[in-house]
């Protein structure tokens, strides 16, 4: 989806990129000016040091032989390639010797370093310029009186110099041309400008392509979010597999959506279960009350009817409580606290509790527990889930062809603690029936004759989900093995 420039600038990524680009440009400009000024200062300092050395050498020559020796040394040095600027003038500023043809007015009027770079012309440069411009050789040379003044508009060079007054009031100037430092500074400025310009262009290109890719991913996430908000909870945010922040965010949101879908499905199941499976006991209560009120009965009959109604109501309350407990556990919320639990102690308590029930039903109940098996969890929830499983095992082992028996074992395997309740009844041979047996209010055909609401295994599965474990129903050959797998607790 194409975006206009104002729309793009409304995005956080574009604003941050623009801010970074502005800061980068400001820093680049400051860096260019700083480097050029620093290089200029360094070259100026080197130039002044060179001039000071030249002045010391000329001072020694003047001390050896006076003005004649000084003039001879200046003439010799003036003729050397790449020579500095040398000038000796009289007290009136008339140039006597040196390699300077003309100076900017007022340069030699003040003793010491020149405050600002000045313009000058060397000897012979005027002739060369005239030859290049095609001027006739008969053009008269500049008069002697104009040697100290550069004509207005005439092209010259820039230099800095040290002006000294000799004891005889003559003037000596020693300077150095600034062409090389200025060229060096220009080269540095151009190099820095080009490098920073290339970096800025690269930054813009990276921002354009990377920013467009990021905007496309954000658009895809927004589109998927709109579909989800429209009611399609099966939709998921796109994951490219790059492993970056967008992928991690999409994965977390997809996990959250999957969790929300599971909770909504659980809520739908609760509503359906209440609407369908609880309708029968409520209808039975109403029919019993209606039958009791119709006709004349003895007080004992009314009492018996009320007692049956209370018992049926208690069973309904237990069913409601079980449904609410399953919903809370599947949602990951419980008011119960978790701490260290010894599964061996929980198994011994449940076995002791159901031993009379098993003995009355003619079932042999064995609990093989050796040592301690520690997990992080809630003792009451684990005990309730184990009680439901043991109760089911006792009820459905009575149809065994041999002596009915229920066996409870604990073992540690592959970082898990497996609590297994096995019976030798007919079991559930069909895989699909074993998968359905843990759903709410599901009662298979063989269990219709047994009392119950079909919530025992559902509650046990919710308890295992709350404890980050799992509940497996496995064929026992014969019978059924219900395995509660807990993550083992590591004590450091």
Order of helices and strands: HHEEEEEHEEHHHHEHEEHEEHHEE
State the shape. Answer: rod-shaped
Largest sheet: 7 strands, antiparallel
| Number of helices, counting only DSSP H or I runs of 4 residues or more | 11
- Rg on CA atoms, Å: 51 Å
Q: Tell me the number of strands.
A: 14
The low-confidence parts are 136-154
Catalytic activity: ATP + protein L-histidine = ADP + protein N-phospho-L-histidine
Pfam families: HAMP (PF00672), HATPase_c (PF02518), HisKA (PF00512)
Domain HAMP: 212-265
Biased composition (Polar residues): 133-150
Written account of the structure:
- By secondary structure, the protein is α+β, with helices and mostly antiparallel strands.
- The chain has eleven helices and 14 strands.
- Strands 1, 2, 3, 4, 5, 6 and 7 form a seven-stranded antiparallel beta sheet that branches. A five-stranded mixed beta sheet has the order 9-11-12-14-13. The chain has a two-stranded antiparallel sheet with strand order 8-10.
- Helix 2 packs antiparallel against helix 4.
- The protein is rod-shaped and about 155 Å long.
